[in-house]
Design brief:
single chain; 69% helix; 177 residues; 5 helices; mainly alpha; two-stranded antiparallel ribbon
């Protein structure tokens, strides 16, 4: 069975798989960088980590929007899977929830940058000057929401990974016939 570039009605294509695994790798990198922020006491090093985290977040936003666009241009193979209707509904709802939370998380990060009063350095390639002279009062609220969204994503990932493992081990309904 060969893998085509585009999705078929029964199988994800190469582009969808590359986009998926690239976003997983990017998200894991972002999580690792974010986890180092709490341990960092040096202000310059903390600012460098924040810049790296924000730059990766902007790339993730672009990647997720590309995934969303690709998803709308291709058939969704899950519709062809021989699984229980409730499992199909749960899988589709879970995927949508993950997209919503990750994209919202990225936009919250962007809002944090815009309300911080600081210059944004995108991977030291270019910088965007501060839009405000000082942090806007809503900055702390957005920071709290950004953290809350980061905590909400873990249970969704756990369910997604568990379902993928379950279907790899037990297969689809038609596999048991």
């Amino acid at each position: 069975m060969s893998i085509h570039l585009k999705n078929s009605p029964t199988q994800y294509g190469l582009i969808a798989r590359v986009l998926h695994w690239s976003s997983v790798a990017m998200l894991l990198t972002i999580i690792v960088v974010a986890s180092q922020l709490t341990e960092q006491t040096s202000i310059p090093e903390k600012l460098a980590l924040i810049s790296q985290h924000a730059s990766l977040g902007m790339l993730l936003l672009i990647l997720m929007l590309a995934r969303l666009r690709w998803r709308h241009l291709n058939p969704n193979p899950i519709h062809s899977y021989s699984i229980q209707p409730w499992q199909k509904l749960l899988a589709i709802s879970l995927h949508r929830s993950i997209y919503i939370i990750i994209i919202t998380q990225c936009f919250l990060g962007l809002l944090m940058l815009l309300t911080s009063g600081d210059t944004f350095h995108f991977f030291d390639v270019f910088e965007l000057p501060a839009l405000l002279e000082k942090p806007h009062p809503i900055h702390q609220t957005i920071l709290g929401l950004h953290y809350l969204m980061s905590v909400m994503i873990y249970p969704l990932f756990a369910v997604h990974i568990s379902a993928a493992i379950y279907h790899q081990i037990f297969g689809l309904i038609e596999d048991h016939a």
